[in-house]
Amino acid sequence: MFSRDIGIDLGTANVLIHVKGKGIVLDEPSVVAMDRNTGKVLEVGEAAWKMVGRTPGNIEAIRPLKDGVIADFDVTEAMLKHFINKINVKGMFSKPRMLICCPTNITKVEQKAIKEAAEKSGGKKVYLEEEPKVAAIGAGMDIFQPSGNMVVDIGGGTTDVAVLSMGDIVTSQSIKMAGDKFDNEILNYVKKEYKLLIGERTSEDIKIQVATVFPGARDESIDIRGRDMMSGLPRTITIKSDEIEKALRESVYVIVQAAKNVLEKTPPELSADIIDRGVILTGGGALLHGMDQLLAEELKVPVFLAEEPMSCVAKGTGIMLENIDKIARHS
Ligand SMILES: Nc1ncnc2c1ncn2[C@@H]1O[C@H](COP(=O)(O)OP(=O)(O)OP(=O)(O)O)[C@@H](O)[C@H]1O
């Protein structure tokens, strides 16, 4: 028996698994549906995501990762086990080595929790890598040269901003401001302005279908349904792009400021490289309409959206797995 090494992007919103030699074999939401009374796991991933906001009292749809770290250890472990069983690496091969991506500023205790969950899920040896580094590699950057590369990885729970050179992070910042917070801002806006309660799935739909963060860059509208706070009855309203741009402005500027902070701490030679090469945006949150335009205007450097931004980390783990023996020797 030989083992297939696997790379895992253990995200707040989505889990992607890359198997060496096969590519990305799993891409599912990080959600687990559980029976509140018995603690039994009912559904995981896509099937559980469909239940969010629609469960009866005894069933709970849980997102075990919050802000990019493990909020519920047991449920994370159950989710990882389920996904690893699903891809069936254990059935055909001996225990795999695992390369797992995590945000830059998690504590030692959190790192240990992630490692333990992976080991219990069948990992022979588990290595952790910092997310922005892997995202940059997955986006096609050659971070191993002595020149500056800047990546802004906007996920569901965290945004990681990093400048990399010679294979390592030179300056970075990780903030708990990303896709989930945008959804929340939209939800609060609709509640405040329209006295309408909507679910997180609806606010994500609004974000994807009509939102923009660059004033005047998009002119769409969407009809959404929710529960009227006064009458308690269902009601439909129409929301437009410019409203959402205003609702998201403050949150988006937290990301702009983090990128500015990182640039301010970057050694001048590397800053010069970034002017030439530009900044790469990765992660699902980078798909937010106008994000590239806004960052380019604010940072005064070219900004590019990576190809398939949501799979950059998983692709990056694939590239790193090619050198896993080197990583193993160094850890
Ligand atoms: N077209 C889109 N426009 C705006 N946001 C989007 C779009 N598509 C996906 N997203 C958002 O991307 C986020 C998920 O991105 P991703 O899968 O990269 O995060 P993650 O890796 O799970 O999170 P983290 O890195 O914080 O752990 C969600 O908030 C989702 O709503």
TrEMBL record:
MF term (GO), any: ATP binding
Annotated GO CC locations: cytoplasm
Major subcellular location class: cytoplasm
Record GO biological process: cell morphogenesis; regulation of cell shape
Gene3D superfamilies in the record: 3.30.420.40
Subcellular location(s) per record: Cytoplasm
Residues the entry annotates as binding ATP: 12-14, 156-158, 204-207, 284-287
Subunit structure: Forms polymers.
Biological role: Forms membrane-associated dynamic filaments that are essential for cell shape determination. Acts by regulating cell wall synthesis and cell elongation, and thus cell shape. A feedback loop between cell geometry and MreB localization may maintain elongated cell shape by targeting cell wall growth to regions of negative cell wall curvature.
Protein family per UniProt: Belongs to the FtsA/MreB family.
Protein name: Cell shape-determining protein MreB
